């Protein structure tokens, strides 16, 4: 059984960037519930879990992906905050970090072990993709609706839909880490 403290340890650097202690606790609680309902028993199991079934991940696991996407989005936000003389839109760092850590939490329900060293889409995942199941999980724990927008709309479900700026930043960081792998697997990523 994965403990709350282990989740806090996995995302420690990022969690401390969430100033609102209630939101910080909710992020941990959503992850905790996702692990419980998805049947993930250990941090080791999470670290073996690929972050997607849609393409070969070249060893990038789910935790690494979640952290890299969140850090990438924070850096993009900081670049705008530090560079623009006048920021055309406010960026809420609490919402950005919470949304980043939670954007793929539904994958804990969408992906399961096939019992033979591989992974497959679960029944839950067939019924509702991770942006939907993650948003439902977060809503049950009272996560604010604008953070739920990040979870629900960070992927194709959000195309053309109203989004907070933090959703756009997480979406871009997510696809900046996903597309190169898809392209590499198709042989269209130019490499040395
Ligand atoms: Fe993602």
Helices and strands in order:
Blueprint: H1 4-10, H2 12-15, H3 21-38, H4 43-48, H5 62-83, H6 93-102, H7 107-110, E1 111-113, E2 119-121, H8 123-127, H9 130-140, H10 145-153, H11 165-186
Antiparallel strand pairs: 1-2
Helix pairs in contact: 3-6, 5-6, 5-11, 6-10, 6-11, 9-10, 10-11
The structure holds fe (ii) ion.
Please provide the count of β strands. 2
Strand-pairing-aware structural class = mainly alpha
pLDDT < 50 runs, ≥5 residues: none
State which percent range the strand residues make up.
Answer: under 5%
The span between the termini is 44 Å
What topology, given as strand order, has the largest sheet?
A: 1-2
Question: How would you describe this structure to a colleague?
Answer:
It contains eleven helices and two strands, in the order H-H-H-H-H-H-H-E-E-H-H-H-H. It is mainly alpha-helical and 192 residues long. The chain has helices at 4-10, 12-15, 21-38, 43-48, 62-83, 93-102, 107-110, 123-127, 130-140, 145-153, 165-186; strands spanning 111-113, 119-121. 35% of the residues are buried. Helix 3 (21-38) packs parallel to helix 6, helix 5 crosses helix 11 and helix 6 crosses helix 10 (145-153). Fe (ii) ion binds at residues 65, 69, 103-104, 174.
Task: Give the key terms.
single chain; binds fe (ii) ion; 192 residues
Describe, in short, the structure shown.
The chain has 192 residues and is mainly alpha-helical. It is built from eleven helices and two strands.
